[in-house]
Amino acid sequence: MDAATEVTRSLQGLSSELTSRIPRLLEAMRTVGAGLDLHVTLDRIAQTAAELADARYAAIGIIDETREGLSDFVTYGVTAQQHQRIGALPDGHKGLLGALIHDPKPLRLADLGQDPRSAGFPPGHPPMRTFLGVPIQVQGEIFGNLYLTEKRGGGQFSEEDLHMVRVLAAEAGIAIGNARMHAATRQRERWIDGSVAVTTELLAGSDVDDALAVVAEQAQRLAESAAGIVLLPDGEGGLEIVAVSADDPTGIMGTHIPPDSPVAEQLLAGEPVFVDDSATDPRMVTAIAPRFGPSMMLPLKSGGRVLGTLTIPRNRGARPYTAAERTLATQFAAQAALALVLADAQRDRERLAVLEDRDRIARDLHDLVIQRLFATGMMLESAYRKSTVPEVAQGVGKAVDELDVTIQEIRTAIFALQQSPAEAPSGLRTRVLREIGTAAVPLGFQPSANFIGPVDSRVGELTGKNLIAALREALSNAFRHAQASRIEVVVDATITLPDGSEGVRLTVTDDGIGIPPGGRRSGLKNLARRAESLGGSSTYGPGLGEGGSGTKVTWEAPL
């Protein structure tokens, strides 16, 4: 027997007035039970209760997890202008609403202002005198309280009103239970789908920076938070933010958590940290902490190894994370860490395959191409000595010189192919040339490179690392989509950004087919996101081809 049936039976033998209102009550119960969206269900309960008891105003106070206050407050009858004048919604920590949290019993008052538990109303609050309150139980636990005020016609709420609202509250508990189960199921499905999306994206071959950005983006979306942030160990015992997805990413990238922070110690030990308010928690010592409120800091841990930290903060004043959200986010972080490990292993295999292919190409160039060019040169040398026509001798001599230059260029390419990436110097110019050399193999030609200004000395490490990632993305897009035969790369460290600060600009221009209308823009979005996280920008336009065909990508950021 459900609670609604039990309460309905208790109505037997009551007044004929109450009996005459039974059809209206049944219709109200049917209305309340329709639908599975929790917020829509709460709005419908408040409105239906007010109509059933002829109340001007209705509200539902939802008790928070601590059982000491209210986590939400749903109203009916209060206009948007009145809400604005009232200001903050009641938190249930004091007054009559707080008393009903600790003593959840039906309550009927002729004048709530005369009750000793009343704390009065804030300025701008509409006048309320008569009062009716009934607890709402969901699966045997108190979910909240249903409040009705201001009986229409100036009278008081009757005993019949109380019985009717109790029946409605019992049915509301069932409807809320169903809606909560539906919401919890949908929420789990969303987090599972998000984990699958992360795993799929990471195993699709993204580089490390893009992989971390995917984790940050999915975490922000799933948690409905202000930001998704990934931190990695900085080599000094602390943590550094290396990937950001945020409504306002300015100033977040590159932020450090010092090694002496209790948060860093706990996270690197593989323990999660949950913060109620980042702006006021003394453990949050970074400059960006005052921008956020409730936050989850979850270690990215797999096989006992802590890879980094996933931080998911909400805006100041936002609702705190529930226990269910904390559990789902922790599971997501564990799945993301496993996907990162698998993706890293896959990239190692691909890198090994590329190195083996480069070694094979280098051997073929040395053993076959150079030997044949050398033999051809010897034949031309013999023809040059035997030729009696000056014009022919001059042309043959020029061809021999060109062959010598070609052989030297091929030997340089062989050296570059055989060189491990770890052996190269770490200057930005060298890293740019290395990326271009690596891209030349799948492209089938060597992109040109031009440097303006003291690139190595002016461009900082963080900007340089992101510039290299942007160059890699742009060259990859040109190889996969542009069908280009010519690519020009320019790095200019002498520019001035729109805000007046000094910056660096990377341009990658090709003569390919351009970007078709309706084509995918994921690569361009990655470039823009990376630039914006540093306070820069990324744009694209016409390229090197005839009539402006092809694509020119411009990426710039502060030095």
TrEMBL record:
Residues 462-559 form the Histidine kinase/HSP90-like ATPase domain. CDD domains: HATPase_UhpB-NarQ-NarX-like. It comes from Streptomyces gilvosporeus. It comes from the Bacteria. The keyword Kinase applies. GO terms for cellular component: membrane. Residues 37-186, 207-350 form the GAF domain. Gene3D superfamilies: 1.20.5.1930, 3.30.450.40, Histidine kinase-like ATPase, C-terminal domain (3.30.565.10). Keywords: Kinase, Transferase, Two-component regulatory system. GO terms for molecular function: phosphorelay sensor kinase activity; protein dimerization activity. This is Histidine kinase. The keyword DNA-binding does not apply.
